[in-house]
Amino acid sequence: MALIGVDHSGRVSAWDEAAEAMFGVSEAEVIGRASLEDAIPGLGLEAGRDAAGVQGLMAVRRDGQRFAVDVSLLRATSG
Prior knowledge:
The protein is of the alpha+beta class. Helix content is 19%, strand content 28%.
């Protein structure tokens, strides 16, 4: 399981070691610079962005290998 955080503007704000291993992309490459869709090509979350969970999506590793992922989306609020 990987933990990936995205801020209110859509930029990646958290990327743990499991995400690095799973997708082949380092934290330094994605934090603050890439959208989630740029960091995980082919994920296609746009249609399911407001859903609590999305199953059966395909993601692409840096080496081009496609693999199945299940995604849980949580909206964080401050205050």
